[in-house]
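Posted in: Structural Biology > Protein-Ligand Complexes

Title: Requesting predicted complex, coenzyme A in pocket

I'd be grateful if someone could produce the 3D structure tokens for the following input. Sequence and ligand are given below.
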Amino acid sequence: MAVAVYPGSFDPVTLGHYDIIERSAKIMDRVIIGVLNNNSKTPLFSAEERVNMLKSVTAGLPNVEIQSFEGLLVDFVKKNHADVIIRGLRAITDFEYELQMSQTNRVIAPGVDTLFLTTNLKYSYLSSSIVKEIAMYQGDISMFLHPEIARKVEEKMAARKKSGE
Ligand code: COA
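-- Reply #1 --
Done. Output follows.
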């Protein structure tokens, strides 16, 4: 049984992430989405909220499960007895960072390999931060996110504005 971990911050999950998840689920027997909980980035959504949003958008993919993790990715991979890490490559600019990460992961955990999928061209420019920035200025984010995720981002932004954050 081929088991993969697809890690990230997913703050929030975008259609670009979903494209990678859906395609990974076709290739692998089981895909575990690892939601990073000790990020240096200050997230808009808590880890629990991000896990729940991912559960909601992947409800139709029976071989996909969601977990949050802290610490090293390779430890999370080993704990779950996964075979590979899945990463999406959006553009050439991702390559250097991804190469460094995959090489480092293999050095600190020999045997843990990374499988790269090229992101759908439609979403090759997309990032969670860009979506949040558009939402902050009340721009239309509906083409980047599942409808329920777009609603949650808009609600969160409105609540932040109200509380003066
Ligand atoms: N579609 C749309 N957006 C995408 C995307 C895709 N297919 N793939 C990546 N992105 C976006 C992400 O949303 C993210 O946006 P943001 O920076 O605005 O939040 C950005 O591209 C970068 O994504 P990524 O490189 O996946 O960063 P991340 O923070 O989501 O995840 C980890 C990074 C979790 C994989 C990495 O930090 C990690 O492994 N941490 C654990 C600690 C560890 O083991 N460190 C040693 C590593 S060698």
